[in-house]
Write a structure and sequence with these properties.
Keywords: DNA-binding, Transcription, Transcription regulation. Helix 4 packs across helix 5, helix 5 runs parallel beside helix 8 and helix 5 packs antiparallel against helix 9. This protein has nine helices and no strands. It is mostly helical.
């Protein structure tokens, strides 16, 4: 390729990591693609060469956040409850560290199927290690995920739960003592 031949593809000035880091510093409830382009010092059209829509941008953010929260090592039959507690605290710290992220995740919408699929699979596996059926492990994931995300979302949105609002540590303790889910009456 000679010096006069234009290079095809995305401009080298941007990277996926730069875009995600710029988004992590914005309120994800209200951020626009123009906001991200401005933060990066690039044109709006240059950003669209990397990320086609706001939903794709939020999917990239979810990929990074889920990667940060998934604990290692994998849970075992002896550590599943402690593993879930660690995961919930990581969710607490990471979701609340990103302005608007917990509120965004708590709202009904299509979640990133890859990122949240990985999260779901790991949590279901932890509940299976607790000795429940696949169906009850799936139910437990739904209860765990919904409970933690809704608590975090309400905190981030500033919903006033009053002076006796449950602390996260108490909420999580009660939630995990009630999980995994079991059929009523068993």
């Amino acid at each position: 390729m000679d010096a006069k031949t234009p290079r095809l593809g995305r401009p080298a000035r941007l990277s996926r990591e730069q875009i995600v880091e710029a988004a992590l510093g914005c309120d994800l409830r209200t951020v626009t693609m123009r906001d991200i382009a401005e933060r990066l010092g690039v044109s709006h059209s240059a950003l669209y060469r990397w990320v086609g829509t706001r939903d794709e941008l939020l999917d990239l953010v979810s990929e990074v956040v889920v990667e940060r929260i998934l604990p290692t090592p994998e849970p075992t039959a002896d550590t599943w409850r402690r593993w879930l507690s660690d995961l919930a605290w990581r969710m607490h710290d990471q979701f609340l560290a990103v302005p608007g992220y917990a509120a965004h995740v708590a709202m009904p919408h299509r979640h990133n199927p890859h990122a949240f699929g990985r999260l779901r699979d790991r949590v279901v596996s932890a509940f299976q290690l607790a000795g429940v059926s696949d169906d009850m492990a799936e139910q437990s994931w739904q209860i765990f995920g919904l409970g933690v995300v809704q608590w975090l979302g309400s905190q981030q949105l500033g919903h006033d739960m009053g002076p006796n609002a449950p602390r996260f540590d108490l909420f999580l303790d009660v939630l995990l003592r009630g999980l995994p889910a079991r059929e009523p009456g068993t």
